[in-house]
Amino acid sequence: MIGNWQLITSSQERKAAEQILNNCQQLPDIQGVVIGSGGSGGHKRWCLQPWRNLEAAAASSGAWLESIGIEVDRVIVVNPLPKHHMGGLMPEVRAKLWKVPVLDIPTEQLKTPSALLEQLKDQKSFKTRNLVISMVPTQLIRLMADPAGCCWLQQFRLIWLGGARLNEAAAIQARSLNLQLAPCYGATETAGMVSALTPEDFLSGINNCGRALSDVELKISPSSNAVEVRSKRLSSGWINGAKLQQFTNSDGWWCSGDAGQLTITGLEITGRLDWAINSGGATVFPEQVEAALCHSEGVAALLLVGLPDPEWGEQLVALVRIKPGADQQLVIKELCIEANKLPPAERPKKWFLSPQLETNREGKWERKRWLEWAQKKDCEVN
Questions:
Q1: Predicted confidence band of residue 240 (pLDDT cuts 50, 70, 90)
Q2: What DSSP letter does each residue of 239-303 carry, written as one string?
Q3: CATH code of the domain containing 18
Q4: What is the mean pLDDT of residues 31-37?
Q5: Domain final position from 241, 272, 303
C-alpha cells in the first residue's frame, strides 16, 4: 500500500512499479488499486482504478448476467487468470460483491484437463450452482484440444472470453461443442468489460464483442476508427512521472488503441491501431489476416508483422509455428494458397518458421518482441 492505493503487480515488476508510484505526487485521496496496462502494445503504463469503479464494473457485469437469465447469487466464479492483470482481478471483485464462492485455478493446472474434470465431480456444490469463468482464447484453444478439456468447458453456464480475438476455426469448434461463450471487450482503463456478446448470439454464428453494458457508452472515432468509451468507471488516469495524466477528453470519452466498428449486433474489433501496417497504400490490421489464415490444420501459431519494403512501404511477414508431426512444406504451401485469396496488400511476402512462437501468459501477442525477432531473421536471410 502507498497511501490509499494498493499496487497490483507481478513480483518481477513490483520494485520498479513501487518506485514509479512513490514518485507520483498527485495520487487522489481515495482507495483503489494501481495496475499495469498496455502490455500488448509494448509500452507499460500504470493505471489508477478506484475500488468504487471496480465494484461498479462488477455490478454492471452482474446485471448483464441477470438480463440473460443467470442469477448472480447462484453462481460460482472460476478464475484461471493472473490476479495482477485486470482480467484476473475482476473475477475476485465480482465474487466478493455478489457474495458467492470463487475457485482460483493456477495457470499450470489448466494443462491437466482430466484433473480439472475430477475436481468438478468432487465438489457437490458445483452441481447446484452455475459455473461462470473468464478466460483468454489461448486457454480455450488448448483445452478444446483435449477431450477432457472439452468436457470440462461444457460444464460452464457461461464463459466470458476476452483479451484477444478468437480465430474462426476455434469459434467453429466451440459452437460444435455447444460452449456457452460470451466474447467480450474491455480494458484496464475501463475497469474491465464494457461490452459482451450473449452465448445465444455466439452460437447463432455472430462473431463480435456484443453490445455495450448498461453503464457504458460506445462510439467509433470518424477520423481514426478508434473505439471510444464513456463511463463513470473510467480510470482516474495514468502515472506519468510525478503527475497523474488524465486520458479522457473534455466530454469524458476515452479513446482506446483499438480500431473497430459498431454493427447492429454489437462491437467488432478490427485490430490494434498501433500495430496497423501500411502496405501498398492500404491499411492492414494483422489480426484480421491472422484470423483468416490460422485455421489450417498444421498451424499451431501464426503472427504477422510489418517490415520495411521499398515497393510496398511495409511488407507483411508471417511467423509460423508448425504443429508436431505436420509436413512443414505442405503447411506453408496451403497457407500460400489461402493467402492468395486475400487482397494483394494482405498477402504475406515472406514466411518464417518460428518453433518458439507463442502468446504470453495472458494470451496476448508481444508484437514488439516478435517484430524484433523477424527483423533479425530477415537480416540473416538476406
A1: confident
A2: EETTEEE--B-TTS-EEEEEEEEEETTEEEEEEEGGG-EEETTEEE-HHHHHHHHTTSTTEEEEE
A3: 3.40.50.12780
A4: 91
A5: 272
